[in-house]
Amino acid sequence: MKLLVTGGAGYIGSVVTALLLADGHDVVVLDDLSTGHADAVPAGAELVRARVHDAADVLDPSFDAVLHFAAKSLVGESVARPELYWENNVVGSLALLDAMRGAGVRRLVFSSTAATYGEPDTMPITEDTPPRPTNPYGMTKLTVDMAIAAECAAHELGAFSLRYFNVAGAHLGGAVPLGERHDPETHLIPNLLKVATGENPEAKLFGSDYPTRDGTCVRDYIHVTDLADAHVRALTRITPGRHEICNLGSGSGFTVREVLAAVRAVTGHPIPAADHPRRPGDPPTLIASNARARELLEWTPVRDITAMAADAWAFAQKA
Ligand SMILES: NC(=O)c1ccc[n+]([C@@H]2O[C@H](COP(=O)([O-])OP(=O)(O)OC[C@H]3O[C@@H](n4cnc5c(N)ncnc54)[C@H](O)[C@@H]3O)[C@@H](O)[C@H]2O)c1
Ligand SMILES: O=c1ccn([C@@H]2O[C@H](COP(=O)(O)OP(=O)(O)O[C@H]3O[C@H](CO)[C@H](O)[C@H](O)[C@H]3O)[C@@H](O)[C@H]2O)c(=O)[nH]1
């Protein structure tokens, strides 16, 4: 297939691009490099440096499908500057849907998020859990999910909205290792590794009084290679006129302290860590039901938290 990957210079989009190329697809990456890196675009893909808002300049009827990763995704920034998120994530995605309709490209895989659910009381979270996002980032992603659903119903688009839980690890199976290079880095595992590499003296653990087994937040971590594999599967299972929402998580939860223990074990570094106040907006527990993804995508995540920590560590040492 000939594919457009928006955000293909970012963490997850670059890994999916690598898997798509390995499967023999032709890939054009559309990325404005606002948070991505040109050298993360795997060799063999063409990089067009442009905003997703200008997708109409790139898309033509020769494309078979679009995988849409391009977005801003920092929860705290979205609270401080919501207008950036509505303009980038919603206006940009609506322009992409227009461009796809104009070019007759009718297959889409979209990066949605667990943040669309907010803070549900019942675990695990299924796709039928009512979405109640608690920050503008989650609101923009839910808005795009709804725009895609309406587009599918009205104009025979076929689409998957894949709701990622906590993506972690690095993809080491390609020519070049691909991993997280966010700046600022807010995610737990890369921040713990910055202590092991000597970049930071001590890790910060946000919140020790949550109603969880050790007082720290529980999250569902999913390896980026397993996540990318789900996208390749989704691409071949799109049905015109249908919009499917699938959670992508492991189905198990780990506390912040359990992740710290896994990172200490793989690095052999003591990683000193200090308790800090809660980070505003962090729900105590988020765990996915991945039953729908297992059924619709015939997908099984195979890489555990130790593999995520080990691969992220290998990447941090090479980067
Ligand atoms: N990393 C996670 O744990 C996680 C969890 C849930 C959902 N997601 C979603 O997955 C997607 C990828 O996340 P990531 O962690 O790889 O982020 P990232 O910041 O590494 O990648 C995003 C890419 O999109 C590009 N981009 C942003 N706005 C653009 C625009 N208007 N036009 C063109 N390019 C643009 C950036 O330059 C970057 O290369 C995002 O949509 C994010 O919301 C990520
Ligand atoms: O240095 C750090 C970084 C994080 N944490 C804690 O580790 C847990 C995980 O935090 P991350 O920032 O790694 O991930 P989030 O769960 O906040 O965010 C993820 O889930 C969100 C949905 O709730 C969004 O989808 C977002 O894009 C995605 O990265 C949280 O309890 C957080 O407080 C720390 O203690 N110290």
UniProtKB/TrEMBL annotation:
<comment type="subunit">
    <text>Homodimer.</text>
</comment>
<protein>
    <recommendedName>
        <fullName>UDP-glucose 4-epimerase</fullName>
        <ecNumber>5.1.3.2</ecNumber>
    </recommendedName>
</protein>
<comment type="similarity">
    <text>Belongs to the NAD(P)-dependent epimerase/dehydratase family.</text>
</comment>
<comment type="pathway">
    <text>Carbohydrate metabolism; galactose metabolism.</text>
</comment>
<dbReference type="Pfam" id="PF01370">
    <property type="entry name" value="Epimerase"/>
</dbReference>
<keyword id="KW-0520">NAD</keyword>
<keyword id="KW-0413">Isomerase</keyword>
<keyword id="KW-0119">Carbohydrate metabolism</keyword>
<dbReference type="InterPro" id="IPR001509">
    <property type="entry name" value="Epimerase_deHydtase"/>
</dbReference>
<feature type="domain" description="NAD-dependent epimerase/dehydratase">
    <location>
        <begin position="4"/>
        <end position="249"/>
    </location>
</feature>
<dbReference type="InterPro" id="IPR036291">
    <property type="entry name" value="NAD(P)-bd_dom_sf"/>
</dbReference>
<dbReference type="InterPro" id="IPR005886">
    <property type="entry name" value="UDP_G4E"/>
</dbReference>
